[in-house]
Amino acid sequence: MGPFLTSARIHHEDQRSGAQNPSEGDIEIEELSNSEMGVSVYRNNTILIQSYFARSFRSSFFQQNMLMDRARMTSLYKKFYKEATTLIEKHIRTPKNVFYTFFRTFSDYLKTNYSRPSDFANAKERLKEAGEDIVAFLQLLYESMRLYYRFDFLCKRFEYVEVLFSKDNFVNFLVSIFFTDPSNHTVINDLLKKINAEDIELTRRGLDVLKSADYETFSVSVLYRLNEESVAEISSLLAKKRASENESTTFRSFQKQTLTGESTRNEYSEVDEYKAFLFEKPYEKSVKVLRKITKYTSPLHKMKVILEFANSINQEISAFFKQHQFYEHKVLDGDDIFAIILYLIVKAGLPEMICELEFISMFTTRALQNSIIGYYSVSIEASLQFIKDKGALAL
Hints:
By secondary structure, the chain is mainly α. Helix content is 68%, strand content 2%. The chain has a three-stranded antiparallel β-sheet. Strand 2 and strand 3 form a beta hairpin. Helix 16 (299-323) crosses helix 20. The longest helix is centred in the middle third of the chain and has 26 residues, at 123-148. It is flat. The two termini are 42 Å apart. The model is unreliable at 3-46, 48-55 and 261-277 (pLDDT under 50).
């Protein structure tokens, strides 16, 4: 641990020993724009739930009704958490606030100690040290804020607040704020690019090799290519479904068509009539979403891009199927997901994507990494390995 963190810990211990509980006479309300929950603060910035939330929650009638409507209670707590963290972020960005000073001082420390040219000669070790320093600083900051804002008081008084203000949640919040400063992200990203320089070059070569490859190269299922081949496959599947229908149903339908003179033409068999409804550029939206990952400096925002990317893939597939009146499609399995993601990674053309994934891994909690976002991150990582291998063969 660097000298900055050592001195900060001593200061933190001094604050702990001198902490005092504010009295009701010390309440000072700080206005928040568009405030619905009425979050207020003491003069020492201790959060106090006021107004509608506190009065309602203390009401026995309210508590009885909330037990029957957990969804509503969860929604209220989320609103409170958002307002509380908005207030805390406002403090952090206020120059006279002590936490603003902490952030600025540590950012200066990070740039001074990990941005020197000599650091790149030993980039792997320096990255490890920088990562450990950042994590230690943010955890120390969490402990300081837990006392400063009296999270324990909130957790004892209100159910669910303990979950919202858990260490993992709050450290993720602090990580996001810390890396909204582009200079902090640059320090880590420069080290990552130095360490992964060879892999980045191999990925770039692999992307060049694969840039003109078709769906077949990536083993994308015909059904998910969102082109004329997909329309033909849909037509075939619907025809098979009709062929397996109950004989009596088919006979009754035939009788009706014969008596009324209705056409017996298969409305799905004419592939040509659907050409006008084909996507001009399949998965174009998903590719654009993935490219946004380089625009963000916060690991949490980068993770959200990955989730948005995954959702966009599903939305484009669903929209295509709906457009062609196909509602019996199966759920995407692991092989389908990997093939589609591989194809789209190549189309996005991001040779430094490996740095994005490592950055996310360094500064997000285990819980987030084990979520659905983590699953898609692993799929992206496997795709990059495939591309890198192609680049190695091209040497």
